[in-house]
Amino acid sequence: MEMHQCQVCGKLFASSGPRICPACIKRLDRVYEKARGYLRDNPNANLNAKELAEAIDEDVLDIEVLIAEGRFERDLSSDLEDIRRQQLLSEFQKSLSKTEAALKAQQEQKRTTYGKDRHGKGIA
Length: 124
Ligand SMILES: [Zn+2]
Prior knowledge:
Layout: E1 2-5, E2 12-15, H1 22-41, H2 49-56, H3 60-68, H4 71-79, H5 82-119
Antiparallel strand pairs: 1-2
Protein name: Flagellar protein
């Protein structure tokens, strides 16, 4: 078996196929069931990835991995009407690109803040 780096947590693990480690798959399955249940119970909720994560009290990154993996796309068709599903999925996609931008901005900021802190009064 080859060693792969987990796409979610970055750990190396032996795998013949999947790029996500068993621990993350297990967690993602649980998060997914929770998210799916929530969407089923709240068919009119207009949520993006972050709001959904908050609603079910899970990590937004896990939600995003599930979205990126196309999990919701596959299964929501049996739970929700087409129009609702399209709305939700496009909202998810939007929040995905926003998150990417936000992450990048955060990294940039960290770099600048770090520089300032070193010469400034230090961090609280
Ligand atoms: Zn992992």
